[in-house]
Amino acid sequence: TSLKNSLLLSNILLDFLSSFAIPNQRHLTAPRRVTTCSVRFAKNGCNPITMPLNPPKLDEEQKEEREWGETSTECDPLARGKEPGQHCHRRLPHITGMSNYFSSKVNEGHESDVESETGTAPGRKERKEGRNAAAILHRISLMSNNVSYHDRSIKFLQYISWLGWYVYLRRSKSSFSDSSSRQCGTSSARSVDELATTFKKFFDRFTDARFIFRFWGVASSAEAISTGSQAAEFRDRPVIMLLTKVMASCMLFYHPLEHVAWVGYVAPKAVKDPNRWIAWSCRFWTAFLLTDLTCTHLKMLELGKRIRSGDDREAGRQNMVEMEQPYKKPQNKKELYKATIRALWQLRWNQVRSFCQLAPAIHWSLPNWSSDPWLEDPLLNGLMFSEAMVHAYQTVCEIIWQ
């Protein structure tokens, strides 16, 4: 009996020491029994795992598994209040990480006890929501440093103001067209007219702000011409690269011409006939939109080929994903596939925006667009309002997806 007890104690001691063994140390000559469950936690139903004397050769992943700890197939030794086999995915690290591991496990076990009693772990949901909110705020902060996102936000406010002005202007006209309202001059009709005037002022101020913020568009256009950054994901497609450089060249002329026109609107004596400069700038804008429609169509065809071809799915894809998802890179093929589908949808929405802008661009390109307008104001700004809403939707998707 004493001999059996001695052997039992020696086996228990070997089990305890072997669980803290230094990786790649092979000085033991006797068969080694490795377990992640000591006697202290035997009541949880843990069974030891016996390993052979000469284990097979390990690949890189198995070596990493060996270095950081063995995986228990029975249970987590430090699980509290859980059924055996419920935490089989946990691993027990060796000497280098034991203190951090045990401290985290004890805290995790404490949360498990509270979770079993109350149904939820304290603060876990709040911490997750806080991290998501912080991530979204970080993305918005990064986007605020981009000229393009500045223009998107101001454009959204600009055409929301136009919509308010148009709605209250129609209400004001309908109010004063009524004979009783015209005779009495009711306060409600005057307030509607004042609201229409206020929204019109907001619309004009936001329009000026877009002129000013687009001052840096020349630098971004020149950078796109020199580096081809607008089609970094399609560097192996020379036609697409050429079209993107043509688009950037159009915007390189568009921005300074519209700024000359804006100076003419602010200081009429400095620049004569600013409408003529607007017409020339919008001609380059029209060329940009036509080129963009063609280039976007070619990009969609290329992405469609990559999606249908499983072998070519990763070819030339990483740069594209970095452009569409600049703050979170896909970690596996499934995420890469989802990012590609999202990029394809963004290209489709780009086509919708280009079609909405094409008619207004042609309208402002005409020589007598101010004196003899081609499009009426409701249709003209209504198309631009639709484009602004689509662009706002794209921006929200980018914030959520990244």
From TrEMBL:
Assigned keywords, A-Z: Membrane, Peroxisome, Peroxisome biogenesis, Signal
Taxonomic superkingdom: Eukaryota
Gene Ontology cellular-component terms listed: peroxisomal membrane
Entry annotated with the keyword Signal: yes
InterPro entries: PEX11
Pfam families noted in UniProt: PEX11 (PF05648)
Organism (species): Corethron hystrix
Main subcellular location: membrane
Signal peptide: 1-21
Name of protein: Peroxisomal membrane protein PEX16
Location(s) in or outside the cell: Peroxisome membrane
One GO biological process term: peroxisome fission
Biased composition (Basic and acidic residues): 57-69, 77-86
Record bears the keyword Cell wall biogenesis/degradation: no
Chain positions covered by the region annotation Disordered: 50-87, 107-129
